[in-house]
């Protein structure tokens, strides 16, 4: 499909091909792994209170891939840290398999944007760390670690140290470390945000492969619209300040996903919808208050 699709000839992002529609029907019949109900988060700092999340509610089904997007500062990291049990919340409920979340647990694995491997430990020993914390025997742990390193394609680097790895490889170790405890949910906060475009694209396909091969539900935060559409079954769109759910969009792009789909009508229609939600057109009043461009130096010429 050509890139120059006219806006008025676009399908609606709500239109779904029969295969996509029936996939969503099946997905919604699966058990609910994560349920967030009326979540509020207020930070109390020296400069007063910040309402970071307001009445956030949603459900995620087993083996679903949900992306969360929203403008910077809208509370995405706050939300995922609450789900991981690393941050308290002011009111509401977070349930994993119907049980309230009170602190971190083996049922949730987390991958952060920054590289968080222990530099003094090898790849293998970094992945082993989670198991050591959970008192798994050494021989069982070694078997588990080998299996997960193979899954992320790093078995040859088991004895390397983090400084010997590229950014993409470090994040693959971080994914293996998060998965080794066989969590129900993998929580990822802009995990590919620091990678170059090519590595990022490779990591996206790699993550989709992992997700297809194991029983895992993924909640993935990004501010990259293309990344969200390419990866997600559904996209939770948050509003700026305070973070409030605007819409939970069912991505109409069929699976399996491929790079060619970035130009498909479904993809473009979904992106247009996300752009409208995240960067709403400015009102006339807002446009009027734009500062005039000031010419600091009278160079007496015009740049072509
Ligand atoms: N520890 C904190 N103390 C006070 N305010 C915070 C803290 N962490 C985040 N905030 C505020 O909460 C809001 C949401 O932040 P965050 O969750 O990091 O947003 P995002 O990840 O979407 O960029 C922001 O206004 C931020 O300044
Ligand atoms: Mg953040």
Sequence stretches where pLDDT stays below 50 over 5 or more residues? none
Shape: globular
Residue fraction in strands: 15-25%
Q: How many domains, in number, for the residues?
A: 2
Order of helices and strands: HEEEHEEEHHHEHEHEEHH
Determine the number of helices (DSSP H or I, runs of at least 4 residues). Answer: 9
Q: Which small compounds were modeled alongside the protein?
A: adenosine-5'-diphosphate, magnesium ion
Write the layout of secondary structure elements.
Elements: H1 18-29, E1 32-45, E2 48-61, E3 65-69, H2 76-84, E4 91-96, E5 99-100, E6 108-111, H3 123-133, H4 138-151, H5 167-179, E7 185-189, H6 197-213, E8 217-221, H7 225-231, E9 234-238, E10 245-250, H8 265-278, H9 284-288
Helix pairs in contact: 3-4, 3-5, 4-5, 7-8
This protein binds adenosine-5'-diphosphate (ADP) and magnesium ion (MG).
Report on the structure:
The chain is α/β, with parallel strands linked by helices. It folds into two domains: 7-107 and 183-278, Rossmann fold (3-Layer(aba) Sandwich), CATH 3.40.50.300; 121-181, no CATH class. 34% of the residues lie in helices and 22% in strands. It has nine helices and ten strands. It has helices at residues 18-29, 76-84, 123-133, 138-151, 167-179, 197-213, 225-231, 265-278, 284-288, and strands spanning 32-45, 48-61, 65-69, 91-96, 99-100, 108-111, 185-189, 217-221, 234-238, 245-250. It has a six-stranded mixed beta sheet with strand order 6-7-8-3-9-10, with helices on both faces. The two termini are 35 Å apart. Adenosine-5'-diphosphate (ADP) binds next to strand 1, strand 2 and helix 2.
